[in-house]
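Troubleshooting log. The previous structure file for this entry was overwritten by mistake, so regenerating from the original sequence record. Sequence copied from the archived sheet and checked twice against the printout by T.R.
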Amino acid sequence: MRWGLLLLVLLVPCVAVAGEQTLIRSPSASAGRIAFVAHGDLWTAGVEGGDAVRVVRSAGAIVTARLSPDGRWIAYTERAHGGQDVYAVPATGGAAQRLTYDARPKSAENLVVAWTPNSRRVVFLSDREAWASKVLRAFSAPVEGGPIKALPLDQAGSLGFSPDGRAIAYTRIFTEVATRKRYVGGEAEDVFTYDLATRRLTRITDWKGTDTDPMWAGRRLYFLSDRGPHFRANLWVYDLDTRAARQLTHFVDYDVDRPALGGRILFQQGGRLWAFELKDERLHELAVNVPDDGARTAPRTTEVGREVRTTDVAGAVDYALAPDGGPAIVAAHGDLFTVGSAEGARDLTATPAVDEDHPAVSPDGRTLAYITDADGAQQLAVRQFAGGDGATADALFKRRPLHARVLARRPAAGGGERRA
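Regenerated output below.
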């Protein structure tokens, strides 16, 4: 179905959720400040937190950011104007310098992952010279603009340079934007080192799950790994002399997300900002106050016709057609709508701060099933579709996450049941 042929004017009320703290992502640090992404914009704050200052207000959304080692620049990836590109801006604020020009809004295109140790070049990932779109290579661009150069790696993911700049610690696969978690198999990330002078490639980790985000400090490699009984990504360290790995953080609820090294390691976990001190291995939380002018969070009614989803992030169909040839059901801006009927578009769910998608209409056309995160985890909901107003969900499976409930039991051969 080609929704581009339809002129949809779908209006949704957007309501801020009271009491929720700002989600900070992609934090990094230097001697004088920290930088991070919040509300789709770029911010800085003091090394111990405090009030944040907006450095860049994005016309779209800033995806990731990294402070330079000398603390003078912030490189970031911004998705705006139909593309996703790399920029650099002075850490104290000012005009941003655009470093790439790419018309593709792919989630893994032009992602800033590092700086060279001398703070002169920004390192980012791209498939621009790869033999397949899923294979990414690492490139560098001068901070003030100029020719882009490929790093001498046939493929790359997250990476970090050795302190002297003579070697790189990196992963050869990049899965941070993938939809899967707890993956075990041949496409799991592992950490390698590459000597730029001798061209020697050395494998550092061989865990069956994910080892990623290497950060090089002295004779130690810090990285994320989901090894362990809880299968959660935590901070680990590998000693290059003893070749022993050791776990440093022990979170059991949410993964450690997007760590960065800058004298210490900053990362986001469970919606909170943490700092790990390398000298004494002390872990402590940083409290940052991010001002909210309401540009993205204030209550408002917005037109969401351009946000209609035809597929989800995994490429699966994300709309439904009524079996009698009646209206189609689409997801846009977190709500479900009927379109193509005589009454025009109608918002079926109207649930601010809740995301609903993957609609499916029963063969008799009377019931609508869909996925909702109203309870904080994805669940299956069923509501009346025809012959009623469909205002409330008739059934909601909410004891366990949807994937756990669906897969918990299945018929065993010869009768009875068995656990999956």
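The chain has two domains: 3-11+308-406, 20-289. Archived copy saved in two places this time.
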